[in-house]
Specification:
By secondary structure, this protein is α/β, with parallel strands linked by helices. The chain folds into five domains: 15-42, no CATH class; 55-90; 92-143, no CATH class; 159-208; 234-373, Nucleotidyltransferase, domain 5. Helix content is 50%, strand content 8%. It is built from 16 helices and five strands. The chain has helices at 12-21, 25-28, 34-42, 51-89, 100-117, 119-126, 130-141, 161-171, 181-191, 198-208, 275-284, 308-315, 333-345, 355-371, 383-388, 394-409, and strands at 234-243, 249-257, 263-269, 296-299, 320-323. Strands 3-2-1-4-5 form a five-stranded mixed β-sheet, sandwiched between helices.
Length: 410
Amino acid sequence: MKSKRIQRIYDHRLVELVQQTGDPSIATRLGIPRSTVAGWLRRAPSPVTTAGTADDSMAELRAKVARLEERNERLSAVLRSLFALLRILKPDRAHLRVPAPDKARLLRAILRTQDILGLRRILAVVGLSASRLRAWRQAERGCLLADQSSCPSSSPTRLTPDEVSAVREMVTSPDLRHVPTGRLALLAQRMGTVFASPTTWCRLVRERGWRRPRLRVHPAQQKVGIRASRPNEIWHIDTTLIRLLDNTHVYLHAVIDNYSRRILAWRLADRFDPSSSVEVLVEAGKAVEAGAPAPTLLADAGVENKNKAVDELIASGRLKRVLDQTELQFANSRIEAWWRILKHQWLFLHALDSATKVRSLVAFYVTEHNSRLPHSAFRGQTPDEMFFGTGESVPDALVTARAAARRTRL
């Protein structure tokens, strides 16, 4: 088995000396083979880096690497903290509203780093879509058209200024004031003027503040209705129909005091009986003090309020009757407003399956309305407190309590 040849390495300074002097004996005296020395003389001198120069360069490189590693560690620590904060807050970055200065700053940062990390990876980290980035860049470049709210390149199918002017002329034209806006859009298409949808027409009218030339003339209406100055001065009576689940009807009669909004009496009947109005009025009359002026009854001209039994009660002098829309211009709206509140805020929230159920629901709400629910027109007093005059201190107490609450908040 042949032994491996060992390649000898000689000092570069000896090689340089032989090459510079051309004297091979300098090396052969030291036992170096003549063939090796002949090879030194045949080849060109090789550049050699001395130990001192290499040590200086390595020291500079090590210092630079140390500085870079320290900077990377700091940046890594900051990034770890920021990513941990993002995971905790979980912001909806897709719908985040970015102010204009911050938007420009973020856009510059993305454009500087896209060549390093790639645009797709940066957008994934920031939580920004490519379409939104494109819109930002277009907005940054701006548009030179001062008469348009946005650049036409972002909405190339928008109406031209001439078409917008035509729309405005037709919308504000007195000759077309009888045409609704939706039909006006179709009429413009039939005329070949503007081909746009009714939605676009309505949007332009809303955004530009155009007013249709429509001046409606209404008869003068009474702003303030009839007002009583004391309890039992004016009463309102009416009858309402309540439909049950089995498609049958019950009839509710009630009397309300104009001054206090208090329900004085009520009665529920299975059939429409005009005598029920008399029973309700007699029950309400129990609250009138002896010797007091007779209340004025405001009623409509229905058969339940204008019949023989009611006429006899009026003739006895215990009541004075006035028919609304017949003997005066005021409407019997006080009791009708209470019907609406009773039905929509209470009765219609339950299954009205029987007259007994309706009677119990009405009894509960009448008690709540009279004694518990404050009225805004009375500055927090209930109808009972207004009727009996026991709540005069309530408005001042509420004003004091509100002021104390504001001080507590401060």
